[in-house]
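Is this the right way to post structure tokens for a design question? Let me know if I should format differently. Anyway, here goes:
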């Protein structure tokens, strides 16, 4: 608390500035005034301002310049100089007599003044003083010649309500004022002598006597117990020694209990801030909640010495509470407790229902008055709690949750012991808030780190995938480029040319399969791939699956693999609700993995009916694979299926698994001496039960000629036009070439009925295929338009349909599919 130790206005006690400013009316009545540097106004109180002639004013102050106008001209200059000195040196004490016009007449006044700040760091300050009446006949020296008596001090201090006592060295009170009666509760009607001795502790009384006999002008502070037994803090000021061999003294006593309590609060807050600051500095290097919980327990032990604290964490995922640590107990007592209990509770996980936990723990500190064995019935036994209570002599206990944004991370249980001080619940609440914020940040940081690690892993996987794809593409591409060069620069007979062309076509198809699977893998990984389920006859599906498998066997030139197909009898009526194309794709991927695994021998493919479900299977038949290798391969496939293993080289297996999951298939990988894949789907019964055709070898597409048909090829790339033109003219079709959408619209507008079909590229300059199709349909809506593009995403098909396209074909164009399109629209 800021005090002016040099300038005490002759009051005999330190002047309290903040007390002065908060009790102005009281001080105004005692003749006090002050000047404020911020406003340059001098404050007297309204009554004195009116006496100075400012009767219309409701303020208690006037400008300093207006005040100087009321000072006698002979005294004005000296008074201004006194103010100037105080402004530039706060250590000075100014005392001066001057004449002041009050109620239209000159009165002699004496002022005692000094300058002071209410905050050491403040730029503003005050000049505070007191008016005293002066007998103009007497000089300044005469005013200090009065005899030092108790009555003189009593008259001087009675307005300030200070306790004034005249005492002997042995503590007998000879005289006192009314304030002393109230403070010390003396009985003024009692004729017997009163002694201060009983209110002091023995050692304090001796120090008090030494202070009385010393020449020190510093106040003496002590704890004093009055007659009623109330204790309070007193500040004693020695005003005078009565010249009787220093055996009698006049002292003033002021109750500073509130001040002491305030100072103690400041000390407590400083200590608490130091504890929390230390906690923050320690957790800088700690990243996990477990480490933070440990530091939290150590911080609570420091903050509440001789108390016992239990720190626990909570997992919202499984509703388990973990006792992280117990602090404040001595090692010997803890060992005794463990021996008597029979187990160590630290680290134990306890299941507590969320509803029960919510009733026990909140974000605010609560005193718990119910024994823990009753609160946690079935979790903490009465015996355990009694052992704990007896061993550590606990009393009151408090619970505080570590809660942030309604998320419970744990809590603190603090036990007051017989040796500890009462628990400061506000401080405990502050620690809980700090801990919840830190743990929340720690968990958020861990989540961010895990997210970063996940992204790094994804980047690494993508890099591996790109590396694998690069290698996989180069193999067929090398064959295509090599054999194409041989066809161009080498004289070959017809048979070799045919063989080289076959190799080029097969490698091209392998390359196309690879890019399609990669595209589907990316789309299914990002959630962009969808399946379209329709009714599908089971045996028809197996016709398609067999054709696809036979084609792939020929593509891979694996003529030493035999495939056995098994279809139950009387199953022609069976139907699936499935996306047959995606199921065919997934099974084909697994089929390729199986034949790469066995390399030679046989595979069994088919289905069986089990409990209204169809079980499609691919089983290893005859092979010479070692059992250990089979086990390793089976484990890899199972890991890929369960998601516990993923590698770029197996992205197609991951694609197949995700496709089967989208199709709601129940997938199993088995090894009973033979490697097996089994997938189950629900069936739809077809009541008409049509007869299904028997499975036969894949038939080549019948080549039908389309003489007198005209097809408009809309294509900006010449090489693509040349390929289409060669195929179409070979089948008897006449072609017209438009290099962009605008040319196509102009040709349709001029020829109109002369065009039978339009093959429309999508991505073109000037006008794209969507816009061209919409304009063409306005000219002649009967002309079929088939979109052709390298983009096979579902949204491309939807855009084409919205523009008015009748069909859709993807690049690179398969001649069989193109021929089928011509059959649909030109036959």
């Amino acid at each position: 608390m800021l005090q002016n130790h040099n300038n005490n206005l002759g009051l005999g006690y330190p002047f309290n500035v903040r007390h002065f400013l908060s009790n102005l009316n009281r001080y105004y009545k005692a003749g006090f005034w002050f000047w404020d540097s911020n406003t340059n106004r001098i404050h007297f109180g309204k009554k004195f301002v009116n006496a100075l002639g400012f009767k219309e004013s409701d303020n208690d102050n006037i400008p300093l310049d207006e005040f100087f106008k009321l000072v006698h001209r002979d005294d004005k200059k000296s008074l201004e100089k006194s103010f100037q000195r105080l402004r530039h040196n706060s250590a000075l004490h100014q005392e001066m007599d001057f004449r002041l016009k009050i109620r239209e007449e000159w009165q002699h006044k004496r002022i005692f003044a000094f300058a002071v700040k209410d905050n050491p760091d403040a730029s503003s300050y005050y000049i505070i003083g007191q008016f005293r009446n002066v007998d103009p006949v007497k000089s300044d020296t005469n005013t200090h010649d009065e005899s030092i008596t108790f009555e003189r001090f009593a008259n001087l201090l009675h307005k300030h309500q200070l306790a004034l006592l005249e005492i002997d060295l042995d503590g007998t009170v000879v005289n006192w004022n009314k304030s002393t009666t109230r403070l010390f509760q003396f009985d003024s009607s009692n004729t017997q002598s009163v002694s201060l001795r009983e209110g002091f502790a023995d050692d304090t009384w001796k120090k008090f006597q030494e202070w009385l006999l010393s020449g020190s002008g510093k106040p003496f502070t002590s704890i004093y117990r009055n007659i009623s037994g109330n204790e309070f803090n007193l500040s004693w000021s020695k005003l005078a020694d009565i010249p009787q061999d220093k055996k009698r003294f006049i002292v003033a006593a002021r109750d500073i209990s509130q001040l002491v309590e305030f100072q103690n609060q400041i000390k407590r807050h400083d200590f608490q801030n130091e504890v929390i600051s230390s906690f923050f500095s320690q957790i800088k290097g700690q990243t996990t909640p477990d480490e933070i919980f440990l530091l939290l327990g150590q911080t609570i032990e420091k903050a509440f010495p001789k108390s016992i604290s239990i720190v626990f964490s909570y997992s919202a995922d499984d509703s388990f509470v973990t006792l992280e640590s117990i602090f404040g107990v001595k090692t010997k007592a803890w060992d005794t407790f463990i021996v008597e209990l029979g187990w160590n509770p630290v680290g134990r996980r306890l299941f507590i229902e969320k509803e029960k936990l919510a009733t026990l723990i909140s974000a605010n500190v609560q005193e718990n008055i119910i024994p823990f064995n009753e609160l946690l019935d079935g979790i903490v036994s009465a015996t355990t709690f009694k052992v704990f209570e007896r061993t550590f002599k606990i009393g009151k206990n408090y619970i505080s949750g570590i809660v942030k944004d309604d998320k419970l991370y744990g809590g603190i249980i603090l036990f007051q012991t017989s040796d500890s001080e009462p628990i400061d619940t506000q401080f405990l609440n502050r620690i809980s808030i700090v801990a919840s914020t830190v743990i929340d940040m720690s968990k958020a940081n861990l989540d961010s780190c895990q997210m970063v690690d996940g992204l790094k892993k994804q980047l690494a996987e993508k890099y591996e995938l790109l590396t694998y794809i690069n290698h996989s593409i180069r193999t067929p591409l090398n064959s295509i480029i090599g054999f194409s060069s041989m066809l161009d620069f080498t004289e070959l007979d017809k048979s070799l040319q045919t063989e080289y062309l076959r190799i080029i076509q097969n490698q091209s198809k392998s390359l196309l399969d690879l890019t399609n699977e990669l595209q589907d893998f990316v789309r299914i990984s990002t959630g962009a791939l969808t399946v379209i389920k329709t009714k599908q006859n089971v045996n028809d599906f197996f016709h398609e699956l067999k054709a696809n498998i036979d084609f792939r066997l020929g593509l891979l030139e694996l003529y030493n693999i035999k495939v056995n197909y098994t279809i139950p009898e009387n199953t022609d009526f069976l139907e699936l609700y499935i996306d047959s194309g995606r199921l065919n794709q997934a099974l084909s991927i697994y089929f390729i993995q199986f034949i790469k695994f066995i390399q030679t021998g046989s595979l069994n493919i088919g289905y069986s009916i089990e409990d209204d479900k169809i079980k499609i299977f691919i089983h290893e038949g005859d092979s010479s694979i070692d059992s250990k290798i089979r086990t390793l391969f089976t484990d890899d496939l199972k890991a890929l299926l369960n998601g516990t293993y993923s590698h770029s080289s197996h992205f197609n297996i991951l694609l197949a698994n995700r496709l089967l999951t989208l199709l709601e298939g129940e997938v199993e990988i088995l090894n009973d001496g033979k490697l097996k894949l089994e997938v189950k789907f629900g069936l739809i019964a077809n009541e008409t039960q049509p007869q299904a055709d028997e499975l036969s070898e894949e038939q080549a597409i019948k080549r039908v000629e389309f003489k007198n048909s005209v097809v408009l090829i809309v294509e900006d790339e010449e090489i693509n036009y040349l390929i289409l033109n060669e195929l179409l003219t070979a089948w008897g079709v006449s072609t017209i070439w438009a290099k962009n959408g605008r040319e196509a619209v102009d040709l349709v507008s001029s020829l109109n009925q002369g065009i039978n079909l339009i093959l429309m590229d999508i991505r073109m300059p000037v006008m794209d295929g969507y816009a061209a199709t919409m304009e063409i349909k306005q000219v002649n809506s009967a002309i079929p338009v088939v979109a052709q593009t390298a983009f096979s995403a579902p949204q491309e098909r939807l855009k084409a349909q919205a523009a008015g396209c009748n069909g859709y074909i993807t690049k690179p164009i398969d001649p069989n599919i193109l021929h089928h399109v011509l059959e649909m629209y030109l036959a």
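Format looks fine. Someone answered above. Worth noting: The first strand starts at residue 3 and ends at 4. The chain has 25 helices and 32 strands.
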